[in-house]
Amino acid sequence: MNAVIDIAPAPMQQGCGDAPVLRERGQREVFCGLAGIVWLHRKIQDAFFLVVGSRTCAHLLQSAAGVMIFAEPRFATAIIDDRDLAGLADANAELDRVVTRLLERRPDIKMLFLVGSCPSEVIKLDLSRAAERLSRSFSPRVRILSYTGSGIDTTFTQGEDTCLAALVPELPASDERALMVVGAVADIVEDQFRRVFDGLGVGPVHFFPAHRAGEMPPVGPGTRFVLAQPFLADTARALELRGAKRLPAPFPFGAEGTTLWLQAIAREFQVEATKFVSVVGPRRERAARALARHRVLLEGRKVFFFPDSQLEVPLARFLAREMGMVPVEVGTPYLHRQLVAPELALLPAGTQLSEGQDLERQLDRCRAARPDIVVCGLGLANPLESEGLTTKWSIELVFTPVHGFDQAADLAELFTRPLARRMKLVA
């Protein structure tokens, strides 16, 4: 096993750390931050998300979450109608009435999020003040917070970022030295990571957000946190203001990314190299074997990323380094260099990076490149498919468990599946 003590391969020469970035500001094609409720309401199991928005907001959530009419989900929409928009009704009084009725009906709710939307921002409804006012009435039984899920100048994953950033000031204070994993991951992924941390002897370990409102982790100068998602810039800043220290690392996508992510944690907590190899080595080898069959189909093929989820840079790294694909363009809504610096260093030199979007220009570049697969939002997928291009929905990469060693092959399959489908259709 001595041969795999240096278990992470060396970065590609040069990489894209200092690569020029094409910055575009024009028409965009993205979902709004309300989509984050779909996975957040499953993660925080005694929280309720009340969107203050329009019927369109309600339809989006119903469609995205697939909630049947007889279900009792932990999210809803307080509809802003024409009377509210015209100023004929007191929106704050109406909101108080809706919240009171909701909490009377659902005594199981321990945390209530008032979620802003485009309509609530248009009428200047101050949900932060509303949350403070309602908290005085319902504390300590229910904690009431607010955040924005508006689609104005944001992308859909930022709903999680604004939600967690709103939670950070509410976290209990502690000087205890501990690890915090930040970002909503599937329960199965959390369990897998806990087993790895137990094997490495790293602890205590907290996941943020926690499963229950009353179990949110403490934070303070002793906290070391590592991001599980690349779109949590506001949350990272809020944690640093509480005294926590971020551990820079690539994100845990694929065998290599997960190894480097764990390596950054092991280095901070002074895990011996032999222990790291004994715990991580077999897991990495299993993941590499599972990835090998997908590489056969993906190697040498071109991939083009439209900006959508902010997962684009780490996914491009995974596809380039572990699947042998050629990233033609890696577009992302926002390029947070501090958060993705380790990822950029691993991208192939010469990769075109773009930030923001001018949709028509990017479509022209995509058509000219004729990539083998295009990663994009739902709104672009069908039109591009009709032009003969193979697409992968960005949102599926957020909804599907893809972190860690055991999910590495599942992540690769999300890219091989549409290619295999296309091959069958043209055969």
TrEMBL record:
* Bound cofactor: record note: Binds 1 [4Fe-4S] cluster per heterodimer. The cluster is bound at the heterodimer interface by residues from both subunits.
Q: What pathway, per the record? A: Porphyrin-containing compound metabolism; bacteriochlorophyll biosynthesis (light-independent)
Q: Does the keyword Mitochondrion apply?
A: no
Which cofactors are required for activity? [4Fe-4S] cluster
Please state the Enzyme Commission number of this protein: 1.3.7.7
Which keywords does the record carry?
A: 4Fe-4S, ATP-binding, Bacteriochlorophyll biosynthesis, Chlorophyll biosynthesis, Iron, Iron-sulfur, Metal-binding, Nucleotide-binding, Oxidoreductase, Photosynthesis
Q: Which SUPFAM superfamilies match?
A: Helical backbone' metal receptor (SSF53807)
Superkingdom: Bacteria
Provide the binding site for [4Fe-4S] cluster: 32, 57, 118
Q: PANTHER family this protein is in?
A: LIGHT-INDEPENDENT PROTOCHLOROPHYLLIDE REDUCTASE SUBUNIT N
Record family assignment: Belongs to the BchN/ChlN family.
What does the record note on quaternary structure?
Protochlorophyllide reductase is composed of three subunits; BchL, BchN and BchB. Forms a heterotetramer of two BchB and two BchN subunits.
What task does this protein carry out? Component of the dark-operative protochlorophyllide reductase (DPOR) that uses Mg-ATP and reduced ferredoxin to reduce ring D of protochlorophyllide (Pchlide) to form chlorophyllide a (Chlide). This reaction is light-independent. The NB-protein (BchN-BchB) is the catalytic component of the complex.
Protein name, UniProt field:
Light-independent protochlorophyllide reductase subunit N
In its UniProt entry, the species of origin is given as Rubrivivax benzoatilyticus
